[in-house]
Amino acid sequence: MRTLLAFLALLVTATAGQRPNLLVFLVDDMGWQDTSLPFLHDAEGKPVVTDLNRRYRTPAMEALAARGMKFTRAYAHSVCTPSRITLMTGKNPARHRVTNWTSPTGAENGDNDVKHLRSPDGWGRTGIAAGEKTLPALLKAAGYRTIHCGKAHFGSRGAFGQDPKAIGFEVNIAGNEIGHPGSYFARDSFGKGSHHVPGLDRWHGQDLFLTEVLTRELCGAIETAAKDKQPFFAYMAHYAVHSPFQADPRFAKNYPDLPKPQQAYASLIESMDRSLGDILAKLDALGIAENTFVVFLSDNGGDAPIPNDKAAPVVSGNAPLRGKKGMRYEGGIRVPMIAAWAKPAASHPAQEKLKIPAGSHHDGFVSIADLFPTLLEIAGVSGVPSFDGHDLRPALKGGPATRPQQLVTHYPHGHNNDHFSILHEGHWKFIRNHADGMTELYNLASDLAETNNLASEQPERAAAMSVELERQLDAMGALRSKRVEP
Q1: Are 296 and 414 contacting, i.e. CB atoms less than 8 angstroms apart?
Q2: Domain residue ranges of the chain, discontinuous segments joined by +
Q3: Quick one: which of 52, 102, 176, 326 has the most CB atoms within 10 Å?
């Protein structure tokens, strides 16, 4: 730790008073279209409002996007734990090797739908490795108050990453090894047994919803940091909108015509959005909104309780995208993302350095790994190796994309879709299915729903992308699916 502190003392270029606060608002299992804010744009750059946009109510997301930039092609992993560890390390899951969600017990959790394939030996099934240099640890050593609130899911029970404090969070509110709550209701003590949400005992028995309770807790922690005049990194990682699909009573009445599970899901979306609005209002009330940089995103594609054929994925709850959480299609990996100052003020010193055009959108390719170097640079911490993340500040200023327009997604496990690897290259997307060797090639610019597999029509492009995919997997030391006797 002394070595790390000495290292950071040389890297931090801003004084404590100048350093902006950082807020990452991460939603669990929220799809690209689970919002009244359109993320789809036509050829002229105009937003396209879909049926799902008309269904959901997210005014706080709309307000945040109006203050800053919307990213229309942001990607995460297809399931949660890999994305969360990627955000914390700047490493692609193929590199950090936590390529699947982690079981609370640390047991192997891949489905066995493919008789001759299993998860690879040695994948990080207990979570983040102890040797990782993480975003909160680096910011903490640089003088930031690091606050975790909500779902952690960085590691299994008894493993290094079980407690968020182990990876650098000074404050941990309600985070441990679980991936979803036993209950969203305080009257039910937020569930019992293996999925009980910890650390919220003082709320038990009250007529409150988990999303609201976490919001109150985080606002209190932010207020304490503000009173101490300490810059903070607040990581609001909601359990919502993951199952169980329980309706927030404050909002369920807004969706009377939906089936009960979908009504509950819509209320979870609106409840989450209210949380965002309440936190932004708190920042404003404390007089620190102008000095707080906010990023909003989801950890993987949507998992709404809207019919979806698991065996043959179709456009459904993430329309116009195909598929859902856990799948190789865009509905499983494309996520909503917004970046903005909590309150725009062009003359503020921090905002003078990073002027984000209001109401803008960026159509270039970005990854959840990019938050690692971007947040460190905004905090004044430079020179930290990022591996697979790229600094998004040029894009945030409204400039052309400087980030390489490629991304590898590697999933050597079974879950909804089984054992696949993906290479995005601009608007082209290549998929290798390891179960049968089948390949898929889509032009997302003309076929966003991935209905027309061009692999046989464009064999040279498919072959070149296949070679590049394997090259990048090898460079990251990716573990491959294990073959077994059927």
Answers
A1: no
A2: 2-400
A3: 102
Tokens of 327: 């799948």
pLDDT for position 18: 74
At 92-119, the pLDDT tens digits run 999 999 999 999 999 999 888 899 999 9
Looking at CATH, the fold of the domain delimited by 2-400 is given as Alkaline Phosphatase, subunit A (3.40.720)
Amino acid at 331: G
- Parallel, antiparallel, or unpaired: how do β-strands 360-367 and 334-341 relate? unpaired
Average pLDDT, the chain: 94
Rg, Å, the chain Cα set = 21
> Hey, CA dihedral for 398, 276, 240, 173, is it positive or negative?
positive
- Which residues fall within 8 angstroms of residue 238, CB to CB, at 6 or more apart? 25, 26, 27, 28, 150, 151, 211, 214, 272, 275
Beta strand 360-367 with 145-150 is: unpaired
Q: Does residue 152 contact residue 237 with C-beta atoms inside 8 Å?
A: yes
